[in-house]
Structure formats: C-alpha cells, structure tokens
Amino acid sequence: MNFMASQIPKKPETPAAPPATGSDDAVVLERRTQRVQPPQMYQVVLLNDDFTPMEFVVQVIQEYFSKDRETATQIMLKIHLEGKGVCGVYSRDVASTKVDQVLQAARSAGHPLQCLSEPVE
Ligand code: TYC
C-alpha cells in the first residue's frame, strides 16, 4: 500500500511567536502587527433624475434603508439639489442586494430612478 502524503502540509499563516528569553530568564512576548484588514464597505447611492416623484424616492429610502420619514426626506432633497446622495453603507453583498431591490421597485413603478453601490473611500 502507498502511504505517501498527497499534499505538503501548509505552514500556519501566523505562527506563534517563540518566547524570547532575556538574560534574566524573563519571558518576553513579541508584539505582532495586526495584519487582518476590516472588510471593504460599500455605500449605496441614489442619483437624481427629472421624472421620479419625490414621494416615491422618500418611500424607497424609508423602506430599503430603514430611515424615518424626516431623514428620508432630507436625503431625497440632498439628491434632488446636489445630483446624488448616500442612503446607507453596507457589506458588498448587502449593498448589491439593496441596489437590486431599489431598481426592481423603481422599474415596477415605471420610474427611471438610478441606484448604484461603490466602495467607501
Ligand atoms: N428630481 C426629482 C423631481 O424633481 C426627484 C428625485 C429626487 C428624483 C431624488 C430622483 O434620486 C432622486 N421629481
């Protein structure tokens, strides 16, 4: 029978720091820099257009971005005046789902509202 290993075992990514001993035999733990980065976050942005009713945009922001009516109205007005506005910041998958939901709701209602997600920073 052949007992040869089919894969060379991988080295652990972050091997434990060996305790260093100083001259007085005290154990010194080495400080390591944290290498894991937080996940990239994505902001969901609505774009202004000349046709989608303000009330529809407010309702979309309330429903899909969990904003109260006043906050949703402020965001809608910012988009209306400045051309675009951030409605929320999420992980990539959640942001993508929000975009799909908003576009689906807008198309179903016959509005040209545009929505996109982009990495934060
Ligand atoms: N500009 C639109 C209007 O005057 C309102 C609007 C606001 C449309 C925000 C889209 O993302 C938008 N009816």
From TrEMBL:
Pfam families: ClpS
Domain Adaptor protein ClpS core: 38-115
GO molecular function: peptidase activity
Presence of keyword Metal-binding: no
Recorded superkingdom: Bacteria
Region described as Disordered: spans on this chain: 1-24
Protein's UniProt keywords contain Protease: yes
Alphabetical UniProt keywords: Hydrolase, Protease
One example of a Gene Ontology biological process annotation: proteolysis
Function in brief: Involved in the modulation of the specificity of the ClpAP-mediated ATP-dependent protein degradation.
Assembly: Binds to the N-terminal domain of the chaperone ClpA.
Similarity comment: family membership: Belongs to the ClpS family.
Matches recorded under PANTHER family: ATP-DEPENDENT CLP PROTEASE ADAPTER PROTEIN CLPS (PTHR33473:SF19), ATP-DEPENDENT CLP PROTEASE ADAPTER PROTEIN CLPS1, CHLOROPLASTIC (PTHR33473)
NCBIfam families: PRK00033.1-5 (NF000672)
Protein name: ATP-dependent Clp protease adapter protein ClpS
Native organism: Hydrogenophaga borbori
Lineage: Bacteria, Pseudomonadati, Pseudomonadota, Betaproteobacteria, Burkholderiales
